[in-house]
Design goal:
By secondary structure, the chain is α/β, with parallel strands linked by helices. The protein has helices at residues 23-26, 79-90, 105-110, 125-128, 157-160, 172-180, 192-200, 211-219, 237-240, 253-268, 271-279, and strands spanning 55-60, 63-64, 68-70, 76-77, 94-99, 116-117, 131-133, 142-147, 164-168, 185-189, 206-210, 227-234, 247-249. It folds into two domains: 39-139 and 242-279, D-Maltodextrin-Binding Protein, domain 2, CATH 3.40.190; 142-234, Periplasmic binding protein-like II (D-Maltodextrin-Binding Protein, domain 2, 3-Layer(aba) Sandwich), CATH 3.40.190.10.
């Protein structure tokens, strides 16, 4: 898992109000909202003191669609960028964005050339040693996909016992299956495309992997509309990470408080939902 996200180059998505930390909770199935609540909001959080003229200098990359990239006109856009812009708008802050290579983001923050990183930087123990983070505003869960005609709905160890489940070899998803779904017949593949094709043609009963990349496959032409999600989401942090937040210089609690207040405001006012559905319109659950 790299710093940018989860499950290799996977994109993102999903839901949960809290990370499932113990085995029994991993298999809980509950009604899911159309737009996930990735952080616990405080509707009555007091607005932090924000000096007039406060400006946040964001750094990001432009090579990670749909999160941060340049559109056909060359304009910097993406899910991360729009979240940051929404925070600036709701708090009436001046904000700027500069594009840097991935390797330059943290150094720019540490030498004072930027105030915040908005680029799908994972909240992790490793990154916390150098940075402070806002609340997470998205995470990438693991999900199962099955064929449309499959009778599988709730994905539990008992339901999947003896069934063939495709997974990419050597990933956190394989490790999770072996830990919690050991009675399934785990079928390893070298690449995601191979695992998904095995599901499409019916060689396996399910595929388990990164929810966002599976979402794009289901909605794209390669799947030929063969399949759907089933069960989940699975978000055990030991396997799938803690999520993504906006990174600031270590110990900059004042800016963390401002960003968290802004995140709460855009969720309460509906901006977060609008942005989420603009970039991720496919129903995942």
């Amino acid at each position: 898992m790299n710093w940018r996200g989860f499950a290799g180059a996977a994109l993102f998505a999903a839901l949960v109000a809290s990370v499932l930390a113990v085995a029994p909770a991993v298999f809980a199935q509950s009604p899911l909202p159309s737009v996930p609540g990735f952080w616990r909001i405080d509707k009555f959080r007091a607005k932090p003191a924000i000096p007039e003229g406060t400006k946040i200098r964001f750094v990001t990359t432009a090579d990670y669609p749909p999160f941060n990239y340049r559109d056909e006109s060359g304009t910097l856009t993406g899910f991360n960028i729009e979240i940051a812009r929404a925070i600036c708008s709701v708090l009436d802050l001046q904000c700027s964005f500069k594009v840097r290579r991935w390797s330059q983001l943290i150094p720019a923050l540490e030498r004072g050339a930027a105030d915040a990183i908005v680029a799908s930087l994972a909240i992790s123990a490793r990154n916390r040693r150098r940075l402070s983070f806002s609340d997470r505003y998205y995470l990438t869960p693991a999900l199962f996909a099955v064929r449309l005609e499959s009778k599988l709905q709730t994905m539990t160890p008992k339901r999947l016992a003896g069934r063939k489940v495709a997974v990419i070899e050597g990933t956190s998803h394989e490790a999770f299956l072996r830990a919690f779904f050991g009675r399934a017949r785990i079928v390893k593949f070298a690449a995601a495309a191979e695992a998904r094709e095995a599901l499409r043609i019916g060689k396996v009963d399910a595929v388990f992997g990164d929810g966002m990349s599976l979402m794009y496959w289901l909605a794209g032409t390669a799947s030929r509309k063969c399949c759907r999600f089933a069960g989940g989401p699975f978000t055990e942090s030991r396997y799938f990470g803690e999520g993504v937040g906006i990174a600031v210089a270590k110990g900059n609690q004042r800016l963390v408080d401002i960003l968290n207040y802004g995140l709460d405001r855009i969720r309460v006012q509906g901006s977060f939902e609008n942005i989420f559905l603009r970039y991720f319109p496919t129903k995942m659950y």
